[in-house]
Write a structure and sequence with these properties.
The complex is a heterodimer of chains A (about 375) and B (about 300). Chain A has about 375 residues and is mainly alpha-helical. Chain A contains 16 helices and three strands. Chain A has a three-stranded antiparallel β-sheet. Chain B has a domain of about 200 residues: 3-Layer(aba) Sandwich (Rossmann fold).
Chain lengths: ~375, ~300
Amino acid sequence: MALTDSDNAMRSEPVGVVGPGDAAPLLEKRDGATLRPTGAGKARNRKGWFQVLRPLTPRARLLLGMLSFVLPIAAWCVVSYVPYVWHPQIAITDPGATDYLQVGMRMNKAAFDDVVAEAKADHKAPPQGYASNPIYLPAPHEVAAAFYTSFVTPPATKDQPWLHQSLWHSIQVIFWGFVISSIFGVPIGILCGTYAAFARLTEPFVEFFRYLPAPAFGALAVAILGIYDGPKITIIVIGTFFQQVLIIANTTRKLDVGLVEAALTLGTKRFQLLWRVVIPGILPDLYRDQRILLGWAWTYLIVAELIGTTTGITWFITQQARYQHFANVYAAIMMIGIIGLGTDMLLALLGRRLFPWERSLDKSA
Amino acid sequence: MSDTAMNKPVGLPALPSYLDQSDAVRARFERLKQREVILKVDGLNKVFSSGQRETLALSDISFETHRREFLCVVGPSGCGKSTLVRILAGLEEHTSGDVLLLGEPVSEPGRDRGMVFQGYTLFPWLTVKKNVMFGLEVNGSGAYEAEKQALQWLQLIGLEKFADAYPNQLSGGMKQRVAIVRALANQPRILLMDEPFGALDAQTRSRMQAHLLEIWRKIDITIVFITHDLDEAIFLADRILVLSAHPGQVQELIEVPVPHPRSSAQFISPEFLATKARLEELIHKGEAPDEEDSGTYSMVARMTDIADDID
């Protein structure tokens, strides 16, 4: 109720602006913001971070981009290195007289305090330890070290892969999943975007299928394709393909119809339009879509690799978690992120070379 | 500029009739009409149907253009100028009547009718030179031949230095020049232009008009030029086709009495002003009184407290 009242009050204000007296503050406010002769630069700076739909300065871009990584890592450092921020457990350094405690064991603070109190009451040596985080949250330096050690630590048995082999296996699964999906998805998407009849024939079913969770086909894929890489690639294909068709169809539909009409008046035959106008016209956007879709393909990787025999980076992660080497687990998860972001940045760079006319657009803007 | 009719200076001698032609102009029109007919539009009708409702957009449009004629089409907004030119280009179908190019009926887009759009519609992924080559290549010219011709065309408009630039690096006026020669490189029989300079600023626009006349004089091309700018129409055209709105109908086909060659000095010549007065009369008559535009602003309160009135 209060809300609607104030709402009305605000709305009625401009209506009331008839007399000169009422209008004065309105004008003053506007002048104050835009026409203040001194300190104009300062005023702009002050608003700099929160300007609506305005680009940032290059320095601000760099700074904020770095902060987006520094801030979460700093938060992690604080939780890890500053005791009493969290540190809910005690790592035992000396079990004292308590026989069920061992060096390196971790227990909750409350339980530890009980044990200490008990030992003191019995006049025995109390156990000792230091406040620590649970084993599943290693400190940044431990994870950083794991980036190196996890690569040089040999696998537990000879027939198991090294980490780099696991990673390479994952990359191959992604690669083939994405390539197979694209071989079908890109042309079908372009056809859907170009020809309304083809779109109507295809898209309703694709819309339906896209809601089916890809991992639901895991068991089926194993039954048909065995337990090795076949079903894994299949899951990635199912996860990517249907989105791909719809996204690329939409991108194609966004092509300026004026270009098609211009080409027609220049004597282009209808079947030439696809190669001569539609495909070159959407290529930069298509490339951008593919980059986004490749990212989606990665998100299906872990589920896919659990199907049949667990392989690749997923095998490494589950194995390390079983041994409670959580630093390795974090390192492996981060490696996925680094590979994904790295590939995307490389592709973005390549895209600038492939589509020079887009770059000249950036320059003028 | 368009409201000069309302505040016409008093005390000037009366304008001659727009129908008065000097001997040179009359002779020119006689020669023009003896040339072959390039485009013949006869009893053209266009009905848009959306659901149950049918709207008559163009009604019984008939006119002819002769070889090397410059025809401008003007009319109030909503008179279907753009629809007309799109039908001529073959981008839209007409409901009934005939559109004949050199006696052949027009049904779909083709290289014999070049078109220049208001949005430049250059292919952004092709360089300027490749844009001009496009039409030649899709019509089966060899790459070498196409390139040679494209460079010649770029020379004609003074943009050979930009042959390898991308359209995004060009200014609006330059883009539109490229778009014009891209259409001309195909050697069409007729060039259709749909408000091609509408998006340009006033100075660029007047330079482009001069450019266009220069190009038109140099080559054998018939031009149908859509515009809502009356000055532009008088400056460019041999004849002006005036349409009325709702439905679009031919009001008059005016022979512009302003002699050739045209120059900007003629904007204040009596023939020019007489033609403009006639056009304004026709267009304002054709314009349905619109509620949004009905004159006064009395109901708007003054929202200023500045003491010294400026009016």
